[in-house]
């Protein structure tokens, strides 16, 4: 048997002002679209904004359903919109802001497993990394240089 290790590296910033202007703008958009979340069941609101290589910014928020699994996370709402609207564009950067209306969420909220798998599909398709930034309503921002850094040993098209 052999063992192997996969390391993941992240940067944490304490304040948005430490980040470049385009990321601050992406978070502004994510925070604004978060207000459109439809989350009557969880009261957990998530906003996501993507910067594409054609200069467009697309965004999405979580949309819930009385049949719970029929709802969709903010990240997938945004990325499927990007794929449906600009199929040739590459996704450069993603900003996610998330938090509960029941308490202050002041820790960085990473994308769920299903969203990681979905974002991974687009990263493989375009063959350049998607830079990921995520935060709570307040507090620190975490940066990952790619989605694959968040999803080691991913299942992808190479297996098929
Ligand atoms: N949610 C997201 O929008 N993104 C994630 O990555 C995690 C969870 C949403 C789904 C659901 O509407 C609510 O947050 C609580 O899980």
Give me a quick take on this structure:
Helices cover 25% and strands 23% of the residues.
Secondary-structure map:
Blueprint: E1 11-13, H1 21-34, E2 44-52, E3 57-61, H2 74-85, E4 91-100, H3 113-126, E5 131-136, E6 141-144
Parallel strand pairs: 4-5
Antiparallel strand pairs: 1-6, 2-3, 2-4, 5-6
The structure holds tetrahydrodeoxyuridine.
Tetrahydrodeoxyuridine is lined by residues 39, 42, 44, 46, 62, 64, 71, 73-75, 111-112, 115.
Structure description:
The protein has three helices and six strands; from the N terminus they run E-H-E-E-H-E-H-E-E. With 160 residues, the chain is of the alpha+beta class. The chain has a six-stranded mixed β-sheet. The longest helix has 14 residues, at 21-34. It has a single domain (11-139), classed as 3-Layer(aba) Sandwich (Cytidine Deaminase, domain 2), CATH 3.40.140.10.
Keywords:
160 residues, alpha+beta, Cytidine Deaminase, domain 2, six-stranded mixed beta sheet, 6 strands, binds tetrahydrodeoxyuridine
Domain unit count = 1
Can you tell me the CATH class?
Answer: Alpha Beta
Helix content: 25-40%
Ligand types: tetrahydrodeoxyuridine
Average predicted local confidence, pLDDT = 97
Taking all Cα atoms into account, the compactness measure Rg is 16 Å
Q: What structural class do you assign from the helix and strand content?
A: alpha+beta
CATH architecture: 3-Layer(aba) Sandwich
Order of helices and strands: EHEEHEHEE
